[in-house]
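Listing S7. Sequence submitted for prediction.
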Amino acid sequence: MKKYPIGFLVRDGEKQTTKEVERSIKEVEEPRKSVVEIYFSTRNMTLSYYNDMFNLKVGDLVYVDGKLEGLGGRVVSVNYSFKIKLSEYKRVIAVIDTTLYGEFYLAGSHVVSFNEKIIPYEKVIRWFKAPNTDEEEFIEGNGENRFLLEDLGTMEISSQIADRGFNYYNENRVKYISIDKGKGKAIVEGSEIYELEFEYEYQNGEIINLNCSCFCSYPCKHQFAAMLQLRETLDMIENNYAHEYASYFAAISKNKYIEMALGKNDIGKIILEV
């Protein structure tokens, strides 16, 4: 079976190497105060916000506070010459890092990276939801639940919920899944964005302590969908990219990958290799 790695690197002007891109990402300048206009496509409106936390550029994707908190918007203008009454302005609270570079491998409905620096969970979750601004306290029990990934019947999930979870999996609602030294995370899109955590034991193929932010007290459809996606992705890695896989992989759905890789770029270069 042929392998299809994808190399992606946006270049503006002169050519840049991957190392140069990595260096530019790490460079952090002192934030410059600005008033920015942000377009919210889901509301088809443009509003002005005060910013003193980030060095924003036109095209950046951001989150704000106020009435549109939780909605992502795109910066359409940046103004450094201003005098405003601060109480009348809401603020930019987060910038979404859409930088993508390096090698990705096709794996069914997803693309996979084996480099932990490219699409880590902490970066990708911002593509889907704003930072949590409340101070709600969460408590976890110390019980241990286990089941076999290859036999999801041991998950002890009802047939009705399993059917709904299969539909979620089939509709590619598992947007992201990763394992880092046995620690797993996933993002599932339902009526809202759900975050999942689990442990994976390579030796016996067991899933341990699978939890979902929907806070069900029983196995849910988001968990079942994520496990189906994990099983598919691990099978594809084993059959096609075993030499690339050590202790880390992250998989992102193709549609989200394309959206983030190409969304705000008018120029650039895409390299496809067979």
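Caption to Listing S7: primary sequence and predicted structure tokens for the chain studied. Residues 10-16 have pLDDT under 50 and may be disordered. The chain has five helices and 15 strands.
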